[in-house]
Each structure stands twice: as structure tokens, then as C-alpha cells.
Amino acid sequence: MGKKLVLGIMVVCVLLLAACPGKQQKLDKTLIVYYTWSEQGNTENAAKILQGLTNADMVKVEPATPFPELDTGEFIAWAREQLENQSLPEIKDLVVDPASYDFIFIGTPVWYGSLSFPIEALLATTDFGGKPVACFAMANSNEGEVLTNFENKVKNGQVKEGIALRMRDETEVEAKITEWVNGLRQ
Questions:
Q1: What is the pLDDT of residues 26-45, one digit of tens each?
Q2: What pTM was computed for the model?
Q3: Can you tell me the distance from the alpha carbon of 106 to that of 158, in angstroms, rounded to the nearest whole number?
């Protein structure tokens, strides 16, 4: 009688565990989509750190028509004009379907306290199929409202906690990204 009771309790426990989604975030099939502009490639460097932690597939977002080759000051003036005109660039096809992944990370440089134009264009045209999506943003000075703007622009995705960093010390950035990813897995 004791063995049947224990076996019955075990079956009930297994059924309850199967019915209750765990807190653990599934990062098995992961995609990193990112855009980088600067010569320093801060967002790309962060994407590579993230890829090392998650073994994710990685895709770079590229404008269909390359941005003009300008020095930083000229680019800032050009970007300000684009922002005032609310002109988002067309982007090249990603060659992958983000909705076919278990988890999607999206990386962006911070432009004027918000998302870069190519990432805004990506969010405006992509359905994430209800999958978890998290933003990592790289800022030179002010992170602004980049994470809030990201959350407001994701279509059909479960927005997870994002991270906005300044790329001053790559070792420090790697430690912060590692801590962030480990937090997402809990």
C-alpha cells in the first residue's frame, strides 16, 4: 500500500510540474539581431559577447541603401534631419524568421536617447510570433528612453528585461551582459 501511495504522489507531482510553466527561460534556439554604425562597433562587440554566452545565431540588420559615409559630426546632423522627417530606412531581408526561435535578442546603438533607425524599421516590419524578445542597447552618453521605446514598438512579442550600457570597459560590459543573461534564464 505504501509503494502505491508513493507512486501515486510521484505521478501527481510530475503532472503538476508539466502543467505549470517554470520560471526558467528557454534559450535553446536563440537569435541575436543587431545593428551597428560606429567604427568602434560597440553594439556588434556586445552581440559577440552575447553570442558567446548563448551560442545564438547572429544576424546584422543592414539598410537597403547604405547610409552616407560621413564623419561623426556630419552623421549626427544627417540623423537629426532623418529624425525630424520621421524617415525610417528600408532594411534588407533578415534571411531568418525571428518567430522560429525560442528567444530573440535585439541590439541597437542609442541614437538621440532612442533606438537606431534600422532597428526601428525592423520593429515596424517584424512579427515576433509571441516569442520572448529582449533589447541590448549601447550608448555613448545617454541611454534616454531606449528600453521603453523598444518595449512600445515590439509587435507580437513578449518583451523581457532589457539592458542599456555604455561601452567604456569591455571587461565590465561582458560582466554586466553575463549577469543580465543569467537573470533572464531564471
A1: 567 999 999 997 767 889 99
A2: 0.81
A3: 13
Burial class (CB in 10 A: 0-12, 13-18, 19+), 116: buried
Domains, the chain, in order of start with CATH, read: 30-185 (3.40.50.360)
Residues 24 and 186 sit within 8 Å (Cβ to Cβ): yes
Residue 132 DSSP label: E
- Judge residue 81's burial from the number of C-beta atoms within 10 Å of its C-beta, 0-12 exposed, 13-18 middle, 19 or more buried: exposed
* Amino acid 85: pLDDT: 78
- What are the tens digits of pLDDT across the range 116-128? 999 999 999 999 9
Residue 6, burial from CB neighbour count under 10 angstroms (0-12, 13-18, 19+): exposed
